[in-house]
Write a structure and sequence with these properties.
75% helix, mainly alpha, disordered N terminus, 6 helices
Length: 162
């Protein structure tokens, strides 16, 4: 069942704030940047981890709920709303790149950040495609897209979780 009310509003607001924060801060310091600028480019630690963790929890919970809703055409509107909620959560995650499993510097650190953000956009794209499939009541496409999301999750966890 989809959560209504304050949690949903917070996810939506957080997605907007995450995108604004992303646009307002550099993603990585260029080589040779002063130490102060490099410090500002570092994630905010616990706060960054919490925002990423919370967005991933929304995605995880959404996956469980979607799995059940895919076989129930009468839950189409709920499933579509859930896809949108998950898109917002993925955009929050986009703005909170996890620390690399191994220490990285320079171009490697930038590549880590770019790869993560691209993957989060791919999750959003898959969720948009799933939303369309649900709206068209294309059960086969919806199930295929759901499985693709599961693979994206698994691949992402292999890369970004110790």
């Amino acid at each position: 069942m989809i959560q209504h009310g304050l949690p949903r509003i917070l996810v939506t607001l957080a997605a907007g704030a995450g995108c604004i924060a992303l646009a307002a801060r550099p993603l990585a310091s260029p080589a040779g940047a002063p130490a102060q600028e490099a410090e500002q480019a570092e994630p905010a630690g616990e706060e960054e981890h919490d925002a990423l963790h919370e967005s991933m929890e929304v995605l995880q919970g959404g996956m469980r709920t979607l799995r059940k809703a895919l076989s129930k055409p009468e839950q189409k509107e709920t499933a579509i709303a859930l896809c949108r909620e998950m898109q917002a959560a993925a955009l929050v995650g986009f703005a909170h790149v996890p620390e690399p499993v191994e220490p990285l510097e320079g171009t490697a650190l930038l590549e880590h950040s770019v790869d993560f953000r691209r993957r989060m956009l791919e999750v959003c794209t898959a969720l948009i495609d799933l939303e369309v499939a649900l709206d068209k009541e294309d059960a086969d496409a919806a199930k295929t897209l759901y499985r693709a999301l599961g693979k994206q999750k698994s691949d992402g966890h292999d890369l970004y979780i110790e």
